[in-house]
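Quick one: co-fold with nicotinamide-adenine-dinucleotide.
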Amino acid sequence: MTQVKLCIIGAAGRMGRALIRGAFADARFRLSGATERVGSAFIGEDLGRLASERDMGVKLSDDPLVALSDVDICIDFSGPAASLALLSRFPADHNVGLILGTTGFDANGLHQIRKAAENRAIVHAANFSVGVTLMAHLLRQASAALGEEWDIEIAEAHHRHKLDAPSGTALALGHAAAAGRGKSLDDLRLAPYVSGPEPRRTGGIGFAVRRAGGIVGDHDVALASEQEVLSLSHRALSRDIFASGALRAALWAHQQAPGLYSMDDVLGLSGAKGADHDPTP
Ligand code: NAD
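Sure, here it is.
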């Protein structure tokens, strides 16, 4: 069996550790490299220490070029600045694939990701859960079928450490709902509610955010007319769902031509797509 050689970026983080545990337990992968930020207390440590496993023979580095020297696929769940710095250091002729889970990029960051996908297969998703990917797919269909006068409300809840809001997943759901109506989210997005003279705009897409404790990630979508409400809900019970989705994407991306892909592509929910595809908000 050929093993896919992996490098984990942000290896000491919550997702990094889940990815190490998942890859270590799956014989289809070999952990070949891992990075952390300059100054991390874990630099030089064996990866096994991070995942409470036995020694793996791979040391954590603060230099992506060292960590990427012999890998097939890099998996990055770090932060927007770190991910863009990594992209800028990928040599153009080094076609290692990238599974990019970092959220919170601005328009310029998304442009840099599209450029980088000209030379390598990149799977970028705001949520690597198979369940959320299907939820977005169903939401697109529901919003297309139900009609423009149905209001759409997207509520999300996450742990107290999360920095971006609404979550990348909530925004991706908003894009899916708008796409179902052939519109952009900018056309339909409502400003946060405050008291005032104007009622809610019929058919708009609103967002609500909660941050508390250790909530892994809840997303609830209500599509409501004057007569009925349709609800779609997803609960992440463990962050391992994101790690197993990212590892599934890594196996898939290893076989793909350069281009920007989404989890829809990984799950076969879309037609063949390439570099012009933008799966992210
Ligand atoms: P975290 O803070 O626990 O981990 C991030 C890690 O990245 C930290 O250990 C940090 O030291 C490290 N890091 C920072 N700069 C770095 C650099 N230059 N090089 C290497 N490592 C660096 O955060 P987390 O909860 O693991 O989430 C990380 C990112 O993944 C966030 O953007 C989050 O929103 C996103 N996320 C996405 C999904 C998804 O399915 N797409 C799921 C969960 C989290």
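If it helps, The two ends are 37 Å apart (CA to CA).
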